[in-house]
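Quick log. Single chain, no ligands specified.
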Amino acid sequence: MEWAAKSSAEQRPPVDLRTDVPHSARIYDYLLGGRDNFAADRDAAGSITADWPNLPKSMRANRDFMCRVTRFLAERGYRQFLDIGTGLPTSPNLHEVAQAVDPGSRILYVDNDPIVLVHARALLTSTPEGRTAYVDADLHQPAAILESPEFAETFDLTEPVVLSLLAIVHFIPDDDEAIELVRRMVEPLPSGSVLALSMTTEISAPEEVRRGVAAYNANGIPLKSRTEAEVARFFDGMVLMNPGVVLVNHWHPDAEAAKVADEHVHMYGAVAVKP
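-> predicted structure:
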């Protein structure tokens, strides 16, 4: 198995998990049935789902979207994946999906939650032919990602890279700031690279999502719902793949996605190619 020579997870001193403060990644873990969360996360999740009862179903639909997008792109020859806002390890992880198609696939995970850092080893279980690595950073730090040794060691920039920003950009409420950060991540990637993005929308359940977004903000976690047109702006200058910006359960649905009711899915998703 090929590991990153030294992931940033291995180089940093012990971290403060801040177990008294709810974190979006740990709330996500709890609502998907995980165990890597704390009382503050569970309390926040309870108050949020009291207003947003279908949030766990929407989160699962988004996780399934990640699997379908990764498999779709891997089957079409993409072998390099940059996943920002990775979250806690939840099988199947992105590298497991990609390497099931081609064991030589290479994946770089990026997250800034201390507990994800603690569990980063679980994300580094590459096939012998491929590679996985982890960087402790976030989308607000494009240079820290793009200039990291792990980035240079994982990717061959003569070949396209898939940039995966799933359920992360909606935590940046300012549209201009969010679009600029995404642009800065896409800009150095070669022609033919792909942006896969998903974020919260209220189109399928307006009142429920508005209440839920307010509950996230009340728990100290900024979250913004966006319209189809607002999501489409993130892909300016790129070529959207069919079917464009849609609820994630409508993006190349498999049999399971086809069973999910739209009113339970509160995420837009889209995939586009850099010319």
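DSSP finds twelve helices and nine strands in the chain.
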